[in-house]
């Protein structure tokens, strides 16, 4: 599916970029790549080429290591992601 252009739902990419910019510098590139790949797979599982906010948030919650969980929640709140409306975090 590498030939298909991946699109982002309106405002989701901007909020994601802001989220990434608030991470420690040495984590940004790795986190951006891992989360984008997982969000793309989530979108493809829905048979679309557009990453939704839910695709992105599920990707973020799936891959975050436990020591960074509290920081991640704070950053998501700061950026304005409403992850609770998607039933996240899973208990």
Put the structure in a nutshell.
The protein has 91 residues and is mainly α. It has one domain. The protein is 58% helix and 4% strand.
Give a description of the structure.
- With 91 residues, the protein is mainly alpha-helical.
- It has one domain (7-86).
- 58% of the residues lie in helices and 4% in strands.
- It has helices at 12-21, 25-45, 53-63, 69-79; strands at residues 7-8, 50-51.
- Helix 1 (12-21) crosses helix 4 and helix 2 (25-45) packs across helix 3 (53-63).
Give the secondary structure arrangement, pairings included.
Blueprint: E1 7-8, H1 12-21, H2 25-45, E2 50-51, H3 53-63, H4 69-79
Parallel strand pairs: 1-2
Helix pairs in contact: 1-4, 2-3
Count helical runs: 4
**How would you describe the shape?**
globular
Our estimate of the beta-strand percent is: under 5%
Question: What distance lies between the first and last C-alpha atoms, to the nearest angstrom?
Answer: 33 Å
Determine Rg (CA atoms, Å): 13 Å
Oligomeric category: single chain
Helices and strands, in N-to-C order?
A: EHHEHH
- Give the strand line-up of the largest sheet: 1-2
Number of strands: 2
What is the number of domains?
1
Query: Structural class, please?
Result: mainly alpha
**Overall average pLDDT:** 93
Helix percent reads 55-70%
Low-pLDDT segments, ≥5 res? none
Major β-sheet annotation: 2 strands, parallel
């Amino acid at each position: 599916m590498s030939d298909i252009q991946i699109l982002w739902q309106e405002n989701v990419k901007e909020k994601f970029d802001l989220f990434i910019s608030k991470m420690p510098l040495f984590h940004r590139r790795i986190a951006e790549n891992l989360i984008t790949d997982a969000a793309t797979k989530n979108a493809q599982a829905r048979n679309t080429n557009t990453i939704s906010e839910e695709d992105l948030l599920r990707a973020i919650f799936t891959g975050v290591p436990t020591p960074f969980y509290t920081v991640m929640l704070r950053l998501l709140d700061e950026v304005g992601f409403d992850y609770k409306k998607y039933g996240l975090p899973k208990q």
